[in-house]
């Protein structure tokens, strides 16, 4: 059984592929759409890029997705409207892979309030990133180390692995 876990983004997604509960591939999959594309088209284009990354013969049977979380005014960071395109990406991916088993986690459900460091993934202040990578087996860590994501985007791949680990009840 193949599970796809996704950390959503309109410009790119962190993606992890699990077979029989084992991490087999992970990457930052970039959206190839042009800037200023309407969000609906950009979301569909992002789902298409994930599909191309997996290959058309991939038989995804489980999806594990991070669903955007809207925070109250005092706790929000930035504009909550920025989360709407992420929901569109998740919906587009869900319609690309109409599977029976879908895990949808709010960020607070899978990582709580544990700090992460977007600027220095796996650095001394990235408690959540280090926790996620520590849960990977040595073989899975080799897969993760070969993901090829630029350091500035690595946190997306880490999160996709964390979402998958949560679905597998390993986090």
In short:
This protein is α/β, with parallel strands linked by helices. It is built from six helices and five strands, in the order βββαβαβαααα.
Please give a structural write-up.
Helices cover 37% and strands 20% of the residues. It has a five-stranded mixed sheet. With 171 residues, the protein is an alpha/beta fold. The mean pLDDT is 91. The chain contains six helices and five strands; from the N terminus they run βββαβαβαααα. The chain is globular. Helix 2 links the parallel strand 4 and strand 5. Helix 1 packs across helix 2.
- Count every helix, treating DSSP H or I runs of 4 or more residues as helices: 6
Unreliably modeled segments: none
Number of strands: 5
Radius of gyration: 15 Å
Largest sheet: 5 strands, mixed
Taken from the alpha-carbon principal axes, the silhouette is globular
Key terms for this structure?
171 residues, alpha/beta, 5-stranded mixed beta sheet, 6 helices, globular
